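Researcher: Let's do a round of design. I'm pasting the structure tokens now; please hold your answer until I've finished.
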């Protein structure tokens, strides 16, 4: 994921109450992006390097008050009614006791007795394991609390940033533009296997609300893993090959009319899917009071659906529908439709 997309996904994480864990090589600007995002949103930003911290730095030190032990908030801890980003860097370089405290923070938004104010968002970051890093293996239960984002800034983004901010000499920019590999290696895949869980599917459902379609696959991979994400995206592409919902036929047939026509004719006809829709209509309309409560528009939509079906399928479905008194009365009043079925039966 490049820089521009990372910023968009982080904002979406804040809206969806999903905690991001950014994976990427050292020196690629993870902390700077978070700090600049905080400035854009007019948030405070607290940057903690967990690899350099002890658990007391997180939960504070004990003190005595009225004969009881209390824990003092550390100096960095956000004040009430403030808003900001708590950036927890070097997550997988933290000590085990520090990780236990972070688990509580991500899960419950509190550290021991200190509750993180509602206006604060948590962003975590880790470096991939390998010969260049000394890292600890993270608990799967902790990893399941995150959306995992593999951050790989693009050379053009870096060059544009350098020009806009004036922080990079022109001769250096020219060199990197000519030899992009000299910017540093950002290769590799997400350095862990993400697996689906009921929790991660629920988080994905929240993440996709209002998110650009082109970012769905990357976000899905970061929550439910590559295999499940691809299966999910492929299922969306094949949505036109799913049964049409009976509720859609009744409520707004114009939205599904093209699919009914597609399923009804040609080499790619899917009569099996139309039968499923017909069975669902029967089930719904057979419920006590449902057929009686149909509006004129819903009855007209049902008629149009039946009229679009291949004649043999329409006849078979109508034969069952007329067992419902209210539907029987309505359909017998539709002369053109009745004549069409009668002629089909005679022709057969």
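Researcher: That's everything. Go ahead.
Model: Designed sequence:
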């Amino acid at each position: 994921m490049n820089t521009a997309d990372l910023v968009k996904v982080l904002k979406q994480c804040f809206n969806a109450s999903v905690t991001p864990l950014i994976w990427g090589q050292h020196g690629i600007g993870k902390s700077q992006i978070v700090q600049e995002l905080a400035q854009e949103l007019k948030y405070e930003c607290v940057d903690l390097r967990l690899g350099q911290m002890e658990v007391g730095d997180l939960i504070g030190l004990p003190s005595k008050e009225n004969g009881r032990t209390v824990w003092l908030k550390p100096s960095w801890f956000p004040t009430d009614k403030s808003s900001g980003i708590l950036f927890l860097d070097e997550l997988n370089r933290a000590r085990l006791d520090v990780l236990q405290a972070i688990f509580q923070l991500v899960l419950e938004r509190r550290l021991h007795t200190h509750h993180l104010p509602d206006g604060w968002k948590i962003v975590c970051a880790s470096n991939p394991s390998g010969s260049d890093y000394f890292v600890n293996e993270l608990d799967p239960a902790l990893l399941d609390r995150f959306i995992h984002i593999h951050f790989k800034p693009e050379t053009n983004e870096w060059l544009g940033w350098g020009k806009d901010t004036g922080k990079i000499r022109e001769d250096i920019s020219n060199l990197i533009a000519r030899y992009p590999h000299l910017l540093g290696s950002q290769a590799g895949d997400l350095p862990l296997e993400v697996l689906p869980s009921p929790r991660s599917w629920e988080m994905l459902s929240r993440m996709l609300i209002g998110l650009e379609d082109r970012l769905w696959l990357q976000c899905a991979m970061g929550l439910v893993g590559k295999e499940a994400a691809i299966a999910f995206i492929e299922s969306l592409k094949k949505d036109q090959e799913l049964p049409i919902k009976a509720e859609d036929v009744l409520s707004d047939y114009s939205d599904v009319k093209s699919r009914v026509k597609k399923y009804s004719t040609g080499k790619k006809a899917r009569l099996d899917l139309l039968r499923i829709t017909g069975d669902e209509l029967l089930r719904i309309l057979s419920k006590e009071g449902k057929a009686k409560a149909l509006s004129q528009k819903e009855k007209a939509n049902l008629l149009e659906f039946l009229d679009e079906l291949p004649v043999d399928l329409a006849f078979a479905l109508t034969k069952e529908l007329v067992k419902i008194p209210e539907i029987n009365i309505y359909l017998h009043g539709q002369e053109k439709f009745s004549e069409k079925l009668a002629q089909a039966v005679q022709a057969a």
